[in-house]
Design goal:
This protein is of the alpha+beta class and 62 residues long. It is built from one helix and four strands, in the order βαβββ. Strands 1-2 form a two-stranded parallel sheet. Strands 3-4 form a two-stranded antiparallel sheet. Helix 1 links the parallel strand 1 and strand 2. The longest helix is centred in the middle third of the chain and has 19 residues. The chain is elongated. This is Tautomerase. It comes from Massilia psychrophila. It is an enzyme of class 5 (isomerase). Belongs to the 4-oxalocrotonate tautomerase family.
């Protein structure tokens, strides 16, 4: 059973998340030849202050 963990900046709507998990599930089923019911997707909303790239917090980006 594939489990897919995704971290995103917070602020996505439920509709966006719904469309995302549908698309990822469909791609997983097609690629891994598994059933949709076996695909788990965990979405973690992350505040920009808790994510950094290149030594700089995203909350401090221009």
């Amino acid at each position: 059973m594939p489990t897919i963990n995704v971290q995103l900046f917070e602020g996505r709507t439920v509709e966006q998340k719904r469309a995302f998990v549908k698309a990822v599930t469909e791609a997983t089923v097609a690629t891994l030849a598994c059933s949709a019911g076996s695909v788990d997707i965990i979405i973690e909303d992350v505040k920009r202050e808790n994510w950094a790239t290149g030594g700089k917090l995203w909350s401090e980006s221009d």
